[in-house]
Amino acid sequence: MAVKATMIVDKDFRIGAVDDRLYGSFIEHLGRAVYGGIYEPGHPDADEQGFRRDVLELVRELSVPVIRYPGGNFVSGYQWEDSVGPQAERPARLELAWRVLETNQFGFNEFVDWTKKANSEVMMAVNLGTRGIDDARNLLEYSNHTAGTYWSDLRRRHGYEQPHRIKTWCLGNEMDGPWQIGHKTAQEYGRLANETAKAMRLVDPGIELVVCGSSNLSMPTFAEWEATVLEHTYENVDYMSLHQYYGNAQDDTPTFLARSVQMDDFIGKVISTCDYMKARKRSHKTIHLSFDEWNVWYHSHAADRKLDPWQIAPPQLEDVYNHEDALVVGCMLISLLKHADRVKMACMAQLVNVIAPIMTETGGASWKQTIFYPYLHASLFGRGQSLVPLIQSDKYDTKEITDVPYLESVAVYREEQGEITVFAVNRHLDLPLHLQVDLRSFGALSLIEHLVLEHDDLKAVNTRENPYNVQPHASGGAVVEDGTKVTAKLSPASWNVIRLKTAKAI
């Protein structure tokens, strides 16, 4: 037995161009993301700045285009001035978001240096929790102004003659959340965000700004929050943020694998709200989306509750990911690609140790978690034009979500290279899925490769002792028929990457 699905993809039916920043990530001063993660001066593989070379190599392998910093909840109590200048003079502070001790030995300029070594760019967040307009404009001046002012000359005295030229700035973080330091109503936040945006644009008109949307789809103020905030900020911001995490705490895998259906719904609702405000404002400007926190997160909740406060970089949010988590991450990446016309930036949260694709041992090795692989494949092969997937698939129902297609899929066309990549997840836990993809508009095709991530055990993980337990392999399951159709047998509970070459590119 098998389940079946068909898919038609036409080179002219395009969702939109995939912005490279769709494959961004996130580093927060949380747990061992920084200390013991990207920064560990005493590590045998540390460079002259204390950056772990092994971690940098893995980040470069992922080809991460932009990295959000320094939070996250951390940013709502962030005093950026503490983190610049001579390290010996930097104060230690009580960090209230995660109740740890922040030493500030790794700071703003170190992060800029680290991103350059990682071949990435900075998405910087400003503190609109405990601080506001002055803090934001001063940090921007320190970062981006050339010379001749107090803050830009201070940067130069700190050893950075040239400005950092950071382009993308987040106006706070999750300000709708009661857990947030300096939590605000939509009216309060909207007013503050707008005035901050105006001041920052006076300092540097070339920046782009991300305003906070709802922290997740279940927030009681969802949609009303977005509308109110955009009422204030519409003409002065460029993006609205979305955040969403999924988990399988109830061990209901069919529902867990269907969560990206809800992600599609979330994105659609935010787009609708943004477009409603566009109509209400009689504006010609379109607000795009920055899905700047997304991932699977649930494994570490019980352990985190047992931690004593005011430690330095304790192990927090260190989810050990299994195979089914990787499938959900794959589905979420496909969801982002299906909305590439409006979702222009996204950040897997986070990058190292903290709910992350990369894990490290303090003083020891680093390794790839299961979720590393779909993220890697999408980042490497998912750049170009996202194409409309016309799918007919067998479906199933769960306790919460109905009409879930067993096939989750999208295709990306890299016209200059003459390459088409089909990303596909078979959600069926027991049966293979027979897939046929009609690609006749591209002319004659040849198969480059079919990569598969599969495992007999949905709960299988990668660990320090067994780092390659779950990893992709080449499959013979995809075949090109009649030059223009691809048939593939997708293993149960599998992530698949089918790469094709057009005749003109051969």
List the helices and strands and how they pair.
Layout lengths: L2 E6 L5 E4 L6 E3 L26 H10 L3 E4 L23 E3 L4 E3 L5 H10 L3 E6 L6 H12 L5 H8 L10 E4 L14 H18 L4 E4 L12 H10 L5 E8 L6 H5 L1 H22 L7 E9 L4 H4 L18 H16 L4 E7 L8 E3 L5 E3 L3 H10 L3 E3 L2 E4 L1 E2 L7 E2 L1 E8 L4 E8 L6 E6 L6 E9 L19 E2 L3 E4 L3 E6 L3 E9 L4
Parallel strand pairs: 1-21, 3-4, 3-12, 4-7, 7-8, 8-9, 9-10, 10-11, 11-12
Antiparallel strand pairs: 1-16, 2-15, 5-6, 13-14, 15-19, 17-18, 19-20, 20-26, 21-25, 22-23, 22-26, 24-25
Keywords:
11 helices; alpha/beta; 7-stranded antiparallel sheet; globular; 26 strands; 506 residues
Structural class by helix and strand composition: alpha/beta
Q: Assign a percent range to the helix content.
A: 10-25%
Question: Low-confidence parts lasting 5 or more residues at pLDDT below 50?
Answer: none
Instruction: Report the C-alpha radius of gyration, rounded.
Output: 23 Å
Query: What overall geometry do the principal axes of the alpha carbons give?
Result: globular
Number of strands: 26
Instruction: Note the main sheet.
Output: 8 strands, parallel, barrel
Overall pLDDT: 97
